C-alpha cells in the first residue's frame, strides 16, 4: 500500500527559519509568474507544443490544401502527396477543411470565453465586493441555478428551436455561429463569476483598497479600476482552462448537427459527416480531424494544469 | 542509568523552493525514564521539528541529515518504518499542538478513539464502551461519555485536548510522551488545567514527558529539566531551578526578562529586539550574536560549543559572564 | 437530516421549474407562431388554429405559461407530429436505454475513479502518480464522439464480431446481449468521468494527508493503508462528491452523443432526430424528461452522500456551499 512518508507538508511542523514580511504586490506580477509556470515543467512544455501544432495547422491551412469548399473528382481518396489528409465524399480536401474548421472552432471558443468573461467578471466582482449582502446573495443564487441546469441539453434545445425558426433569437436574425457562442458563454458564467468573486473578496481586504476608500474614491472606481487589475490573473487562468471546454463543446454541438452548418467546416461537423463513412473504411476522414481536435484539448489542459498548480497557493489564502 | 531517549547531534533540513534550510543544527538531548524535560524557544527555533524527526513524521520536504536517535538503545533513524511504527504511540506518544484539528472532522469520536487505539496495548482487547469511559474518567472527561457519538467540532478545545491525552497517554500507555506546545491554542485557564493533567499523569503512570513550549511559565510548572533552543541550536541546558534562577545564556536571560510579572509594575518591560530571522545557511559564529547585547568579536566568528557549566551546559563564548574563550572553557573542563 | 432532505428536494424543484420555464420562453418567444412551430412547417392553417386552441395558446402570456406548466406536470406533452402518438409514450419507450447507460456508466466510473485518485494522491510525486495524472488528463481530453468513432473502426471494421458496435437490446429480453451492447458505450461515457473523479480526489487526498488529524493518526501508529483509507479518504471525498454531482450533467450530455454514434434507441437520439425532423413537441418532451432525470440523479447522489457523510448536512445548515470548499 502507499507509503505515507510522501505526504505533503503538514501544518504541524513550523516552517524553517524565515520571516514573511508583507510585501506590496506589484501589479500583474501574477501573470509573469504564470508565464514561468508554463515553461517550468515538461508536461506544460509538451502542452505548449501541442497548442503550437494546432495553431500551425490553422496557419498552414491558409496556404496549403486549397479551398475547403472546392469539390473534386477524387472522392474519398486516402491521404497522399496531393491530399495530405485525403478527401471526403465530395472530393473536398480534408486538410483544408480541417484547417478551416480548426480556425472556426478556435474563433468560436475564443469569442465564447471572452463573452463569458465580459459578463461574469463584473457580476463576480460586484458580488465579491458586496460579499454576504443581498446583492451577493442574489447574484450567486442565480448562478447556482445556472450551474445546476443541464446546460448542454438546453443548448441543444436552443439551437434546435432556433434552427426551426429560421435562425433568429427573440426575432433578431442571428448567425448560428453567434448562437453557439452565446450558448457556450452561458455555461462559463458560474465558474468565472465564482473565481472573480473569491479574488475580489481577498483584494477588498488589502490595504490599498482601504486607502482608496479613505481618500474618497468611488466604489465603482475601486472595483473596476484598482481591484479588477489584481483580480485578472486567476480569472484569466480560469478563462484559459475553459478554452478547452469551449472547443470541446463547440465540436460536440456541431457533431450533433446543431452547430455551424454545412458546407462550412468545423472540427465537429467534419466528424459528423465522417460518421457515415466509417464502415467504408475511410479512416482518415474521422481520425485525422479528430486527432487535431484532441491535440488542442490535451495541449490546453496540460498548460492549464501547470497554471492551476501555480494558482492554487494564491487561492488558499 | 541508560537514558530512555538519547538524541545525538541531530541535524534536520527542509527544502523549500530549491533552497535548503537547516531547522535543527546538531542538537543533542537526553530524556531519562520518568523525567519531564522542557524544550523552550521561539516559534521557528526547531523544537517541533526535533520531535518529529525522532518519530519519523517529518513532511516529505524535510530530511534528517545526520545524528543518532537512540530510543532504548535502538537508533530510530536507521531502524526502518516497521520499527518506527512499533514505537509510535506504543513507546512514544504525541500530544499535538492543535487539538481542534487533530481528530478527523467526519468521523464520530467513539470510532476514532477505537481506531487510534487499535494497535495499542489494552487490558480489554474489545475496547468496550466501559474501557473508553474509563479512559475519559482518567483525564477528567467523565461528563462527556454520553456524547461520544458526536463529531469533534461539537467539543471544546480543552475537551479535545483531554481526549487526545486520554488516547495518547492513558490508552496507549507509552513510556515517553511528546507534548508539542499542547496548550498554545487554548485559553489560559484551560491551559493550566491541561498542564495539571499532564503532571498528574506523569505521577500516576510514571511517564517521561518532553514538553515543548515557548511559554516559560508552563515549563517552570511542569518540567524537571530544560533545554533552551535558538534557531536550531541548543544553547543552554540545566535543571529548571538553575535555568530560572541563574540563566547563563544571554538568550535565556532575554526570554526570562520578557515574562511579564517578573518585573515591578513601573519598570519598563524589556523587549528582545528582532526575531529568529533568516540566518544565512553558511553562517559562522553564534546564531544569537546578531541580537545579543553582549556579543563580542569572537561571537560572530566561531560557533560556541555546548559545554558543561555549573548546574548544566551552556553554549556561549561570554560564559562565565563577561569573560572566557572557548579554549579557556575547554581547559576548565 | 429531514431538514436537509426537504431543502434539497425544494432546490431540485426550483431547478426543474427553471428548466421548464426556460424551455417555455425559448418556444414562446420563438418568432412567428408557436402553434405553427408545434404543428410543423407543412401544416395547414386549420391545423395551426386547432393546435393553438388545443394548446391554450390563445390566451395571454401568463395563461399560456400556466397551461404549459400544468400540462407538463400532468404528463400531457402533446403528440408527435410524425407518428401522432403521445409524446409521453414515445419518451417512456426510449427511456430504459438512456437510464441504463447513464446509471451503469456512473456505477462503473465512480469506484474506479475513487481508487485511482486515492492511489495517486497517497503516492504524490511517484511514477504511479504521474501515470495517473497524465492518463486521466488524456482520457479527459479525448472527445467522446471521436473515441466512439475510433472504436467503431476498431470493432466494426478491423476486429468485427468481438463486441457489438451498435444497437441495444433490453436487459429483460436478453441479459447477455444487453451487457455486450453496453460495453463500448459505457466505456466512452465512463472514461472522462473516471478521469474527473480521479483528478479531483487526487488533489483533495493530497490536501487531507497534510492535515493535523493525519499526523496524529500516524503518530498513533496507524498503517499507511489505514491512514489513507480510513482517515484521509473520508475527508478527501467531500469535494469529490460535489464533482460527481456536478459532472452528472456532463454524463447526460455524453449519453446523447453516445446514443447517436452507437445508434442506441435512447432519448438522446430521439431528441436529436426530432430536432432534425422539426418534430418539436417530441423534442421538447425529450428535453424535459432528460432534465428531470438529470435533476433526480443529482438529488439521489446528494442525498446518498449526506447519508454517508454527516458533515455535509452540517455545512448545509451553516449555509456554506459545498462548492466553495
From TrEMBL, chain A:
Q: Which Pfam families match?
A: BPD_transp_1
Q: Which organism is it from?
A: Phytohabitans maris
Q: What are the subcellular locations of this protein? A: Cell membrane
Q: Where is the signal peptide?
A: none
Name the lineage.
Bacteria, Bacillati, Actinomycetota, Actinomycetes, Micromonosporales
Tell me which UniProt keywords the record has, alphabetically.
Cell membrane, Membrane, Transmembrane, Transmembrane helix, Transport
Similarity annotation: Belongs to the binding-protein-dependent transport system permease family.
**Location (main, coarse):** membrane
Q: What membrane topology is given?
A: Multi-pass membrane protein
Q: Which residues form the ABC transmembrane type-1 domain?
A: 102-304
Name of the protein this chain belongs to: ABC transporter permease
InterPro entries cross-referenced by the UniProt entry: BP-dependent_transpt_permease (IPR050366), MetI-like (IPR000515), MetI-like_sf (IPR035906)
The record lists the membrane-crossing segments as 46-64, 106-130, 142-161, 167-189, 239-262, 282-303
From TrEMBL, chain B:
Topological type in the membrane = Peripheral membrane protein
One Pfam family, please name it. Answer: oligo_HPY
GO terms for molecular function, please?
Answer: ATP binding
| The entry's keywords | ATP-binding, Cell membrane, Membrane, Nucleotide-binding, Transport
Please give the InterPro entries that the UniProt record associates with this protein.
AAA+_ATPase (IPR003593), ABC_Ni/Peptide_Import (IPR050388), ABC_transporter-like_ATP-bd (IPR003439), ABC_transporter-like_CS (IPR017871), Oligopep_ABC_C (IPR013563), P-loop_NTPase (IPR027417)
> Record's CDD domains?
ABC_NikE_OppD_transporters (cd03257)
The lineage's top-level taxon is: Bacteria
Task: Give compartment(s).
Answer: Cell membrane
Domain ABC transporter residues, every copy: 5-256
NCBIfam families in alphabetical order:
oligo_HPY
Tell me the protein family, please: Belongs to the ABC transporter superfamily.
- The name this protein goes by in its record: ABC transporter ATP-binding protein
From TrEMBL, chain C:
Pfam families of this UniProt entry? BPD_transp_1 (PF00528), BPD_transp_1_N (PF19300)
Q: Which residues cross the membrane?
A: 9-27, 101-120, 132-159, 179-198, 243-268, 280-308
Q: Which UniProt keywords apply?
A: Cell membrane, Membrane, Transmembrane, Transmembrane helix, Transport
Primary location group: membrane
The membrane topology of this protein is: Multi-pass membrane protein
| Domain of life according to the entry | Bacteria
Q: Where in the cell is it found?
A: Cell membrane
Q: What is this protein called?
A: ABC transporter permease
Q: Which organism is it from?
A: Phytohabitans maris
